[in-house]
Design a protein that fits this description.
Elements: H1 9-61, E1 109-114, E2 135-139, E3 144-146, E4 156-160, E5 173-179, E6 185-193
Parallel strand pairs: 1-4
Antiparallel strand pairs: 1-2, 2-3, 4-5, 5-6
Length: 194
């Protein structure tokens, strides 16, 4: 009868070492993939917001009714009337499906409107530089607050860059962008008319 032999201890250690190296490389690659995906989602959200602003501008300038109704040109008030929690309202807000990729909970801020009526923060600058007194943000759950969010990562930014702040006007120039993984402002478009 022939004697069967198993693997030696050295052979088993080599196999375990190879599996460990492959797992380590896979985990690092997977983490990089997740980080890149979050960055892409934040940028895509900002581009979607930019497109919504441009199409809403056409509707507003034509005198048609827009959703949310707070963005219509009838009535009085400031742009904050349009860019508050009605954007993320869970029943009819245009950004109701948007989520903050860096903050999974429903109370995470999704959009921040800075009404400084001038270019408040330059491209690449820290998002925490926005003026809290002129800010208002909307959360993913359709609620909102005045001031600045405590965590800026993934927040979409709308800046009023003109001296005009009247919801009845259709000549506002807005800068649109987002806060990246380092909470720095990344501009998507510096001059969206609204």
């Amino acid at each position: 009868m022939k004697k069967l032999e198993g693997f030696s201890l050295i052979e088993l250690l080599v196999v375990v070492a190879i599996i460990g190296v492959l797992a380590a490389v896979g985990v690092v690659g997977y983490q990089q993939y997740i980080n890149n995906t979050k960055a892409d989602v934040a940028k895509t959200n900002a581009q979607g917001l930019e497109r919504w602003l441009a199409s809403t501008q056409l509707t507003r300038s034509g005198g048609l009714t827009v959703v949310p109704k707070d963005c219509n040109i009838e009535g009085t008030g400031t742009l904050a009337r349009c860019f508050d929690e009605t954007l993320t309202n869970t029943t009819n807000g245009p950004l109701e499906k948007f989520k903050n990729p860096y903050q999974a909970n429903t109370t995470a801020p999704i959009v921040h409107f800075d009404n400084s009526t001038s270019k408040a923060v330059a491209n690449g600058a820290a998002c925490s530089s926005f003026t809290a007194a002129k800010g208002r943000y909307a959360k993913a759950d359709g609620s909102g607050a005045t001031g600045n969010p405590t965590d800026w990562k993934g927040v979409l930014i709308i800046q009023n860059t003109t001296a005009t702040d009247d919801i009845t006007k259709t000549s506002h120039v807005l800068a649109v962008g987002y806060c990246d993984s380092d909470a720095n402002f990344q501009e998507v478009n510096a001059s969206v008319e609204f």
